Amino acid sequence: MGVTWLFIVMFVVAAFAFAPLGYFIYKFTINNGKPFGETEPHGDSPSKVNDLAEKAIEMFKGFLQKNKK
To answer: Exposure pattern of 2-28 as b/e (b: 16+ CB <10 Å)?
Structure first.
């Protein structure tokens, strides 16, 4: 009884563990290789985080230039 019960429990755990992978494969094959529809390529859309990072990098570069002189 113990081995059978353990097999059933492990089978249920495995089903829950691999469900997201199965869902992704299902969505990937249903839309002809595009699982999440039409998406923009990375870097084409404006981002406040990217702008902030660029400003921080420029400020750091300016700081380094001041210290070199």
So the answer is: eeeeeeeeeeeeeeeeeeeeeeeeeee
